[in-house]
Write a structure and sequence with these properties.
This protein is mainly alpha-helical and 57 residues long. Helix 1 packs antiparallel against helix 2. Helices cover 91% and strands 0% of the residues. It has 2 helices and no strands.
Length: 57
């Protein structure tokens, strides 16, 4: 089950980062913010998934 939790955490944070980035991109009229939000979400999700997996081993 830790693998499922890690995958869900990674996916959720990546999508959340994309949504926040898209919202900021629309407000500031800079489409690069959507990509930056997605990248930040993936980085945070990867770190969180890594911590979940190493904690369960």
């Amino acid at each position: 089950m830790p693998v499922l939790a890690a995958g869900g955490t990674f996916a959720l944070t990546a999508v959340a980062g994309l949504l926040v980035g898209a919202w900021l991109a629309a407000r500031m009229r800079s489409p690069v913010l959507a990509v930056a939000g997605f990248a930040l979400g993936m980085a945070l999700g990867g770190y969180s998934a890594y911590r979940l997996l190493t904690r369960s081993i």
